[in-house]
Specification:
The protein has about 300 residues and is of the alpha+beta class. About 20% of the residues lie in helices and about 30% in strands. It has 3 domains: about 80 residues, Pseudouridine synthase (2-Layer Sandwich); about 130 residues, Pseudouridine synthase, CATH 3.30.2350.10; about 70 residues, Archaeosine Trna-guanine Transglycosylase, Chain: A, domain 4 (Roll), CATH 2.30.130. It is elongated, with a radius of gyration of 22 Å.
Length: about 300
């Protein structure tokens, strides 16, 4: 079974937990995700199934959108609410005006220090493993881009925000650094990812919904429509003969007038069989072949992780 299934991840689960659960539900081994979510976080977690796991290479720099709450008054060692406080709590009530101005200073390409409790590796060892052993975590700042950071409201020591960020940005670090700059400490209390690339909350299904669906209809009905994948690439429908050549990795002429360098190649309406690169004119060579058997995307049942 090939497809993209967007999960609305619940709090308390790791991204790998979700992958493992979907594998068991669908009875399919080849399952991956497009961008890790911390256990604390909820929201959009796109899963790629079957041969479409090969699409992951196109999503390594995907833009992401978040909504969440920052709690000011004390910092934690994990930079979120699951960690231990690193100092005594202070009574604070920052104003919307002050926080709005502070948030604006984070917008742009900035240097950000990842949290010590993160998957960033130091000499091959994940930072969180060193942090748990109370060892020195020598992480270095990395360049990230925050495209939007808006404070939506303030209630006491808590501020609701919305952010649109580039790949690799830690909202935990944003919360921590804002607390540092205010001089009172701060940490991420909750976080919900509302979009990754072209995938949004309207496309997402809970694990419970997926499990219930399996009993009622082909789970492929929950899949993200393949024509909407990688929207910056034009879609081209190949003839039966051309599709057969593409499945074996051979170059073919395709009916494309877009002049785009790359296109999505379909056999029929929903069977995405390749991403192809233009050689010259209307001649395209497959960059990656995604199709094994014709019609794989239209199959029923299924699972993943």
């Amino acid at each position: 079974m090939n497809g993209v299934l967007v999960i609305d991840k619940a709090a308390g689960l790791t991204s790998h937990d979700v992958v493992s659960r979907v594998r068991r539900l669908l009875g399919q081994r080849s399952v991956g995700h497009l961008g890790t979510l911390d256990p604390l976080a909820t929201g959009v977690l796109p899963l790629v199934l079957g041969s479409l796991t090969r699409l992951a290479q196109f999503y390594t720099s995907s833009e992401k959108t978040y909504e969440g709450v920052i709690r000011f008054g004390f910092a934690t060692d994990t930079y979120d609410t699951e960690g231990e406080p690193t100092g005594a709590a202070q009574e604070v009530e920052p104003s919307l005006q002050v926080l709005g101005k502070l948030a604006a200073s984070f917008v742009g390409v900035i240097e950000q220090l990842p949290p010590p409790f993160s998957a960033k590796k130091i000499h091959g060892v994940p930072a969180y493993k060193l942090a748990r052993q109370h060892k020195q975590v020598g992480l270095k700042p990395v360049q990230v881009e925050i495209k939007e950071l808006e404070i939506l409201g303030v209630e006491g020591a808590r501020a609701r925000f919305r952010a649109r960020v580039g790949s690799g940005t830690y909202m935990r670090s944003v919360a921590h650094e804002m607390g540092q700059q205010l001089g009172c400490g701060g940490h991420l209390e909750s976080l919900r990812r509302t979009a990754v690339a072209e995938f949004g909350m309207g496309d997402a299904h809970s694990l419970e919904e997926v499990e219930a669906a399996i009993e009622k209809f082909p789970v492929s009905e929950l899949f993200f429509h393949p024509r909407k994948l990688l929207p910056h690439l034009p879609s081209v429908t190949a003839t039966e003969d051309a599709a057969a050549f593409i499945r074996t990795g051979r170059a073919v002429n395709l009916p494309d007038m877009s002049r785009a360098r790359q296109v999505k190649v379909f056999s029929g309406q929903k069977d995405l069989i390749a991403i192809a690169t233009r050689v010259a004119g209307t001649l395209f060579r497959p960059k990656i072949v995604l199709a094994g058997e014709p019609g794989a995307l239209d199959g029923g049942g299924g699972g993943h992780s």
